[in-house]
Amino acid sequence: MGTAPDFAAGLTAAVTPILPGFGVEQVAEIDSTNTELMRRARAGRCEPVLLVAERQTAGRGRLGRPWQSTQDTAQRTSLTFSLGLPLTPKDWSGLSLAVGVSVAESLDPTASAGVRLKWPNDLWVDDRKLVGILIETAVPLGDAAQRYVVIGIGVNVGPREAEGLRMPPAWVQEWRPDATPGQLLLDVVPPLIATVQAFAERGFAPFAERFAARDALRGRDVQLSDGTRGHCEGVGWGGELRVRTAEGLQEVTSAEVSVRPSGMAF
Ligand code: BTN
């Protein structure tokens, strides 16, 4: 995968002050980093951890879709990892959007590369997919008072072919030719953890304007996977997608709904 050998030490040092007990694990191959952390959480293992995989044999995306990484070679690289930690926000709505904001700002701090946020949590560049995010929660050992969140992130680092993908890909090396998975982990993970902690304290509202600044759908005609068509008016303070339809304003919150600019296939 091309991670620097000491990325784990650097990450642990950067994160431990804000998340005591944090650990980093890197594996050559696994079915899915999300699946593994969910398995552990259900078995009662709820430590804060970053699990990085060089290859996933059964990577998962949203809505039950598969997630395929590039076949790693020197030029064609991808980054796949999951962050797991105990979390008890008052309101979960908007977490995936806040995560997207954090990752977009880390990969493209000045927005000069055109990294945009496609509700609820994809990162696009010119309507091509750069990053996919899958967030799941587990109730450890059936104790409903506790929740463990698993935030899985897949990043295209190097170039990849569009063949076999649902939408054309973008990759970080388009604007950062020297980007490596290890460096990107150091860039992305500490701010991501700070974001998740801030979200747990204050919810999505503090992130709403930052989402709006990179919103890929606002001002465009869109269609929802349930057939609804309308004009996107951006996201609300709770992270809901606002779509003006012929029947009026529809606020979309369901994670089961997919949205696309009009004319783009699902
Ligand atoms: C999507 O675009 O639908 C979400 C894709 C999420 C992919 C990442 S890769 C690391 C983690 N492990 C998985 O199996 N999925 C997520």
TrEMBL record:
A GO term for molecular function: biotin--[biotin carboxyl-carrier protein] ligase activity
Every BPL/LPL catalytic domain range: 23-200
Keywords for this protein: Ligase
Matching Pfam families: BPL_LplA_LipB
EC top class named in words: ligase
Protein EC: 6.3.4.15
Domain of life: Bacteria
Keyword Transmembrane in annotation: no
Protein name: BirA family biotin operon repressor/biotin-[acetyl-CoA-carboxylase] ligase
Source organism of this protein record: Variovorax ginsengisoli
